[in-house]
Amino acid sequence: MPELVTGQTWMILTAMLAYLLGSVPFGIVITRALGLGDLRKIGSGNIGATNVLRTGNKGAALATLVLDAAKGGFAVLVARALLAEDAAQMAGLAAFVGHLFPAWLGFKGGKGVATFLGTLIALAWPVGLAACATWLVAAAISRISSAAALTAAASTAGWLYYFGEGRMLFLVVLMTGLVYIRHAGNLKRIKAGTEPRIGKKQGDAQV
């Protein structure tokens, strides 16, 4: 863990603001703005980029992916610039939790992988980019988005060790655990051999 130097009041304020930022459902905002319908009634109903792709609009899916990742990254960078590294980690975690459990959507949010990766890139870009590369390799091999996401998340602790970023270990273990919890259904389908592959229009393999 980083050295705790930020005061309690500022940490709480940081967490609240980062949560609010993270809970902005960009997938829903974008699909509604483009007249693509209610994302929660399309495909799996998830608010992530993969489900946006099921609308057939690749640009909307890409924008959702980038903005969901940016939520975590922006929160981290602002907290680091204004406060300290402990606040930056708190901001990343809070933005990530906001994406997973947004209050205005009944705490039913996305799977969190894009926000997870965006947070990692902002906190320690070599670790974040290595995790992204892991996702790409796993996706190319398995052709299953959720399997690639889970592999990338699981690999992150190893990348922390490789790049000497042990200060992030607690945060990464916590976030990885939440990613796996949100992918519980995907894990069952992967084991059963029923998880859809990348490019299919049905299923629930969102980021």
3D structure, described in words:
This protein is mainly α and 207 residues long. The protein has one domain. It is built from 10 helices and no strands. It has helices at residues 8-22, 26-33, 49-53, 58-82, 85-100, 113-123, 125-142, 145-163, 169-182, 184-192. The longest helix has 25 residues, at 58-82.
Which residue ranges are poorly predicted, with pLDDT under 50 across at least 5 consecutive positions? 202-207
* Mean pLDDT reading: 89
Count of alpha/pi helices: 10
Cα-to-Cα separation, first versus last residue? 27 Å
The helicity comes to 55-70%
Major pleated sheet? none
Strand content: under 5%
The H-and-E topology, N to C, reads as HHHHHHHHHH
The outline comes out as: globular
Domain module tally: 1
Radius of gyration: 16 Å
Total beta-strand segments: 0
SS class = mainly alpha
Topology:
Blueprint: H1 8-22, H2 26-33, H3 49-53, H4 58-82, H5 85-100, H6 113-123, H7 125-142, H8 145-163, H9 169-182, H10 184-192
Helix pairs in contact: 1-4, 1-5, 2-4, 4-5, 4-6, 5-6, 6-7, 7-8, 8-9
Brief overview, please?
By secondary structure, this protein is mostly helical. It has helices at about 10-20, 25-35, 50-55, 60-80, 85-100, 115-125, 125-140, 145-165, 170-180, 185-190. Helix 5 runs antiparallel to helix 6 (about 115-125).
Give short descriptive properties of this protein.
disordered C terminus; mainly alpha
